[in-house]
Design goal:
It is a single chain. This protein is mainly α and 104 residues long. The protein has 2 domains: 1-41; 44-104. 77% of the residues lie in helices and 0% in strands. The protein has helices at 3-7, 11-17, 24-41, 44-72, 79-99. The protein is flat.
Length: 104
């Protein structure tokens, strides 16, 4: 796996998930083991498909959060347009997350 792909597993994110109970050096080890395991068990197109699906899920959740925040802001100009845009973008990310498959 390339350094760029491996770096997408954030050590700081791993620390946040473990609520700082996992020392950073062990987080690096865990990320290394997952990265090597994924590389050995998957082809490059499969890894790219997994990464694309993960990003689609991330952006779908971000659009969901933006939708909820915009819904709470009563004084937001063009509020209904923002709500519709966030909902549309979240719905567009859903099939990429669910149906994303490797190209070969």
């Amino acid at each position: 796996m390339s350094r760029t792909n491996a770096s997408q597993f954030s050590v700081h994110g791993a620390g946040g998930v473990t609520h700082q109970k996992l020392p950073v050096r062990y987080a690096y080890l865990l990320i290394l083991l997952v990265t090597v395991g994924l590389t050995w068990t998957t082809n490059v197109n499969g890894i790219i498909a997994y990464a694309s699906r993960a990003f689609a899920l991330f952006y779908m959740l971000q659009c969901g959060v933006a939708f909820l925040v915009a819904r709470q802001l009563k004084d937001l100009s063009h509020r209904s347009l923002h709500l519709a845009n966030f909902a549309f973008l979240a719905l567009m990310c859903l099939p990429v997350f669910v149906l994303g498959i490797p190209s070969s």
